[in-house]
Here is the input.
Amino acid sequence: MTTTTPRRGVSAGLRGTLARWAGRITTPLVPTDYIDLIDPLRSGTRLRGRIVSIHAETRDAATLVIRPGSGWRSHRPGQFLRLGVDVDGVRHWRCYSITSAPNRADGCLSITVKAVRGGVVSDHLVRHATTGTIVSLDQAAGDFTLDSPTPARILFLTAGSGITPVLGMLRSPALSGKHDIVVVHSAPSAGDVICGGELRMLARAGRIRLVEIHTRTDGRLDPTRIGELVGDITDRRTWACGPGDFLQGIEEHWAATGIADRLRTERFRPALVVLDERGRITFSATGTTVEADGNQSLLDAGESAGVLMPSGCRMGICFGCVAPLRRGAVRDLRNGALTTATDGGDGVVIQTCVSTAAGNCEIDL
Amino acid sequence: MTVMQDITPNPIAHLTDADIENLSAELDAIREEVLAGRGERDANYIRSVIDNQRRLELGSRAVLLFSLFPPAWLIGTLGLSVSKIVENMEIGHNVMHGQWDWMRDPAIHSTNWEWDNVSPSDMWKHSHNELHHTYTNVLGKDHDLGYGIMRVDEDQPWSPFLIFQPLTNLLNACFFQYGIAFYDLEVGKFLKGRIPKDDFRAKAKKVLAKIGRHATRDYLLHPLLSGPSALTTLTANVTANLVRNLWTHSVIMCGHFPEGVQTFTKTSIEGETRAQWYLRQMLGSANISGSPAMHFMTGNLSFQIEHHLFPDLPSNRYQEIAPQVQEIFERYGLTYASGSLPRQVASAWHKIIRLSLPNEFKPNEFKPNEFNLVVNSEPAGSTVPRCEPVQSRTG
Here is the structure.
């Protein structure tokens, strides 16, 4: 992925010529392959970042300060970034809200990660990541952002790590003015509130009104009670972020009140892959779907449905049949090992000749 | 070696079908153990090999800018030769086998990798990964047996042209990367009319373009960059490519050509099970013994047996599992073919020289067919698997 915009005119032509000749000198590699040895964060190469510090926030959450490569184009408060990190040698990609304000003086950004039970990446980032590690990054994305101009009266409804995009907004200059901000945050206990100290300080300083719901003692937040907690909800723009059932209750209540248009939500969707003995295989490039049982290889299933499948040895040794798994789960017919992919797959490539559907799955062929 | 080979009876006659299945299960268990432990250590290994190879290449080419000075020529040429060997063998060959695909790093992936060798990676992957590794040592199917230009097995037919095969082999060794490229182009198959003209043309164009790019790099641009050292940089680059060719050719020749390695008939692999495939790989490959540095410089192809059993396991793991594999060979009464590099190279050359003559010219005095055990004649359902080796016919 290139992150630079080429300059126009003579210099662009010159740079193009130079790059072509440099490529002829380094073929079959490209000059970048060598320069990355020295400077992996410069512009013009694949976007990466270096973890410069890690701070514990709660017993299961930590903030990672990352210095992004020169190609980083900043972000709007509330956006997330996709981060690729190697866990035990395997690259995994996940999305995390950016919790720092845009254009920090030190050029860094921060994400705050809560370790999810059984979460390979979040657990690694919170408990095992070390400073100095190079991670892969994508540019910031997402439209869970503040409107422009910023409304005067704002309500943030968050639960758990749903506070993270809101932290990014609260820390941004856009909200440093005289805004009337209410934050209703739900967490198991006071100690589980991510950046609880900072939120309470903001409340003491009068910047926000903070309502903490500690579900272990208070029970779950009842959406119909938000009005009582906050005052009027109809005259506020609301941003809500948290688990699906938390958001669903809010969406229903806002719709019932007739103010659905004043609500913005962002779901932190756990990557759900449903496992099964059989499943529907979708070959997305050709638009073919096949119902397959758990014994037939993806290669056989695809071929019998008329998909032009690349193939080779048909016994798992030549890697001539590999194809990207976009989402879903497949099982290795040789040893039963499961491979899963979500959200486009992020580089998960499978051998179709020795894999079978382990639930619905999508192959990019 | 020759004598041993000819008097060895069917090397798997003592194994029952159940034995072969058990053996296969034991090999699967070794594979599973490596898969379960595969992780950060392995990822760090390949990344550091790649980084250091690139540093070595950069450094060597930088030194060669001053190759007019003999010490610079020597150091630069040595460094570039080593760099090219490592790039081709421990990195290129193994990455293109998919040994590192599990890391999900698009920069180190079989589907993206291109190597410093004139054979384009996609063509090489087809002829090597798919044909050679699937049909290992099957006469008429695995063209790595003599690359279609030499006779390396008694059961391959002799023709007068083969009298020159020692010379052919020497030339192939010197120009090995071009040999591989033309081999991967399947010129022979094209001449027999088994490849459509347009397909062949497109592939040939790709090969020629890559040859052009690599020649431009090594024989034009880098010499030009060296200014007054242009001519010496040119000789350095020619030397480095030659050293790489000779070395890779020697190592690869040791994988399947030494005496004692078994070959198989086309019919013997019909309906072959995975267990029988394993057995064929065990009988059809030979290792090179030596120091860790030697193993590294062969891209761990010195563990040819382990590589052929598990072509997709990370190369750094082969030497770790080799003792277990060898123990299985011994327990099942099979010969773990292994020898030092000089011995295996000599053995392979000996075979090539010997087989340049028809079988009848063999110097050793054996009575015809005395040891020609026709194991294929066992009735179906017998204890002999279907992948029996073809015995060498003796003179």
